[in-house]
Design goal:
The protein has 96 residues and is mostly helical. It is 30% helix and 4% strand. A two-stranded antiparallel sheet has the order 1-2. A hairpin with a 4-residue loop joins β1 and β2 (91-92).
Length: 96
């Protein structure tokens, strides 16, 4: 009988503590969490192009393509190059 009472008391304590934890949890009623707030605060991105006067074309005029493997030709189709978009994979291929 004493054991049954202690089990009941323990069960009530657990239920009350769980209810308290649920009541103290995040309510989600913060207006900054609502989808309408998030969608209404999105600003349209308008890129602005500026003249980059710090770039000097002479820095890159002597650069050449370095191939990863000697005597291996570069693929003629752009879709076969590394990091090329792949429509059938719904993304970008990472690697050869």
């Amino acid at each position: 009988m004493l054991r049954l009472k202690s089990v009941r008391i323990l069960t009530r304590i657990i239920i009350i503590s769980n209810l308290f934890a649920l009541s103290r949890g995040q309510t989600g009623e913060d207006p900054n969490n609502s989808p309408i707030h998030v969608l209404s605060t999105i600003e349209k991105y308008s890129p602005t192009l500026t003249d980059n006067v710090s770039f000097n074309p002479a820095w890159v005029k002597d650069l050449k393509l370095v191939l990863p493997c000697k005597d291996i030709p570069v693929p003629k189709r752009g879709a076969r190059l590394p990091n090329a978009p792949r429509d059938y994979r719904s993304g970008t291929h990472r690697g050869i």
